Amino acid sequence: MLKLSQRLLSGEAMSNEHRSYSGLKTDLHHPLNAHEASVESDRCYFCYDAPCVTACPTGIDIPMFIRQIQTGNPKGSAKTIFDENILGGMCARVCPTETLCEQACVRTTAENKPVKIGVLQRFATDHVQATGEHPYQRAESSGKVVAVVGAGPAGLACAHRLALYGHAVTLMDANPKPGGLNEYGIASYKTVDNFAQREVEFILSVGGIEQQQGVWLGHDVTLADLAEKYDAVFLGVGLGDVNRAEIEGDALEGVSDAVEFIADLRQAQDYGQLTVGRRVVVIGGGMTAIDVAVQTKMLGAEEVTIAYRRGAESMNASEYEQHLAQTNGVTIKHFVQPLRFIDDGSGSVAAVELEYTSNTDGKLKGTGEKFTIDADTVFTAIGQTMPKDLLEPGLVEMENNRIVVNQDRKTSHAKIYAGGDCISGGEDLTVAAVQDGKLAAEAIHRTFSTTGTGS
Question: Could you read off the pLDDT of 235-248 as tens digits, one per residue?
Answer without folding.
Answer: 999 998 999 899 99
